[in-house]
Amino acid sequence: MPSKEQILEFLQSSDIPAGKREIAKAFGLKGQEKIALKRLLKDMAEEGMIDGKKAAYHRMGGVPKVTVLRVIEIADGEAIAIPDNWSPDAPGEPPRLTMRELKDKGGKRMPALKRGDRVLSRTEETGRGWIAHPMKKLPARTEGLMGVVEIDGSGKAWLAPVDKRVRNSSPIADLGEAEEGQLVIAERVGRSDRSGVKVIEVVGDPLAPKSFSLIAIAKHGIPHVFPQESLREAEEAAKLALSSEHREDLRHLPIIAIDPADARDHDDAIWAEPDGQGGFNALVAIADVSYYVRPGGELDREARKRGNSVYFPDRVVPMLPEVLSADVCSLREGEDRAAMACHLRVDGHGNVTKFHFTRALVRIAHNIAYEDAQAAIDDGTAPEHLKHLWACWRALEKARHARDPLELELPERRVVLDEQGQIAEIAVRERLDAHRVVEDFMIAANVAAAKALEAKTAPVVYRVHEPPAREKLLALRDYLATFGRKLALGQVITPSLFNRMLKDVSDEGEKAQVMEAVLRSQMQAYYGPSNAGHFGLALGSYAHFTSPIRRYADLLVHRALVDAYKLEQPRPKNANLPEATGLSDRDRSSLQQVSDAISQAERRAMEAERDTIDRYVAAWLSSRLGEIFDTRITGVQAFGFFATITGLGGDGLVPVSTLGREHFRYEEAAQVLVGESSGTRYAMGDKLKLKLAEANPLTGALKFVPVDGEGQEIEPRGHRPPPRRSEKPAGKRMAGKRGRPGNIRHQGRRKR
Q1: For the whole model, what pTM was predicted?
Q2: What is the Cα–Cα distance from 1 to 7, expressed in whole angstroms?
Q3: Pairing with 44, which of 52, 96, 209, 574 sits 20 to 30 Å away (CA)?
Q4: 540 to each of 467, 491, 595, how far by Cα in Å?
Q5: Short-list 391, 393, 373, CA closest to 382
Q6: 529 pLDDT more than 90
Q7: pLDDT 10s digits, 539-588
Q8: Do 456 and 383 lie in a common domain?
Q9: 619/564 Cα distance (integer angstroms)
Q10: How far is the C-alpha of 24 from the C-alpha of 64, rounded, in Å?
Q11: Which of 320, 311, 362, 327 is nearest to 341 (CA)?
Q12: pLDDT for the residue numbered 106
């Protein structure tokens, strides 16, 4: 018989899951020896030496050879996971496993993992810790772990989800200190959904304005509390002295920072003046974050994990501690600041003919809001340096028109809160020339940064936007054919092609539909060390350089420029910080993993910001139920269509059952619902009046119902008029299973 130590050693060294059968085979056990082995394994389990089932044992405190893992964070571009079924009652902390790359059966690299992903993996314990080799990504669990406590008639507690994609409530096994109606965060208590959840934190009033962003932060797993180590390092970095001895002194230039009126940080500023030859000398000054956030430190590690700042109406979750993001790195009026300066020579046609980068010392002449800058230009009261900016922009605009980037009208919703945090206004943000001025200066600097690094064959974190995939173009071609319009796929697809297509549409309703379809055909932009161009901007090389306070990608570009152009600063005296400010060896070796991680963080932030705005809109509208709004259809499916309120936003569902008593047929190619008897059509881009029936601030979900010309609700399908006096009333509706009242969602469901 093997000893207990020999069995443990075998379990750890086995390449496959090892149960009683595999152990017996390995040690050549037969007959009565197998019975003795069974008793021995039982003793080892009772003594806490092994865990698992008879088909697959593993060392207690270890991880099964093949198991389901859940990704809990992305650290330095690597996914960190724990066992998905780890019991909260188990002793000690769950083992943390570093995930290797996820590949398909052909060995092709699959999209990077993100927080919350569940992955079937083969595990391995090494001298450096646990390693996981992903085998298959599993579907996400559909159980929301943030919700509102509800108590049913029998006194049982339920967690009502705040995610509109989650339909079912979860039983609460441990209510803790939570009370009915409170917003809480919970965790699972077992492997089965029926095991229920345990409340681990009480957030409070679910309808308090602050709750909307907290819901998004918790739902998307956004890191929002800085570790003490990174805060201490930020305080140390904030004390770094600035000197013009090793920096270009640009404090004499009237550099202007133009930002939103409610901006929390200022990381870019611009200046221009005529060069006397029909062109301009221009400057884009960007906060020199790389001077303060150095590779290898705790501050850098936390910034890399966050990837970017996340902006909500009531708060910002910054990438960097506020002592840097809102103070020392922020380009404030009248204060000396460290900057990375991009010097540009712009000719009369808007082409950038020369550029170079320096580390500089700047003093911002003015912090001015977009609206105020625009008003000064419009009424003729703008100072000369502001007029020079507009003149240089007019040249840059010529080059933009010649390039002909994709022009899509994408309205941005703006939520304005009062001093109590209550909603004062929700409106679509006005698009001004002032926005375009700053945007075109930033684009010029971003292009210059990419080209400057390419000239030195230095590492680049590109901002990549690939051309539409063929399958998306095929779907767009089929959709346009329903309008009698053609999209020839044999030609080179360019942004100009889409722009001409939109200009050819004179009808505003049809134009909105085509624009929506073109938008859906586009690929999602991402970060990566391999250049594939930027389709939307019609640029061959593009990198993000202009926002290092709030984007880690920009910080990496700054570090690469420091190395490539020898812009390193002398190490400050008495500073307990890493010495170098350029790219570290780790940055260089893991550029792909870091790019994947910050691309995921960006998508996470966008979803969280959009979810929060939806909740604010629903809260704003919750007191206006029954009102009729002008809306536009944004999406059509077989079960109904989605519409958004004109000038306000907030997508709401119109179920197909509410469209009338006739049957509606869904035509997938045209993305339209057609009434079989009346021929009534509902298509993307259509404008119509709808009545608001539901507005749920917790989920952000809206529901509309159609109305007729007199503003009355259309009689829904399946609605029975009241019986005539000569008729007998219909019998009572049958109760559902187990005596519950019948649920209309589960009755009369057809197979499709």
Answers
A1: 0.75
A2: 10
A3: 96
A4: 12, 19, 19
A5: 373
A6: yes
A7: 999 999 999 999 999 999 999 999 999 999 887 666 678 888 899 888 88
A8: yes
A9: 51
A10: 19
A11: 362
A12: 64
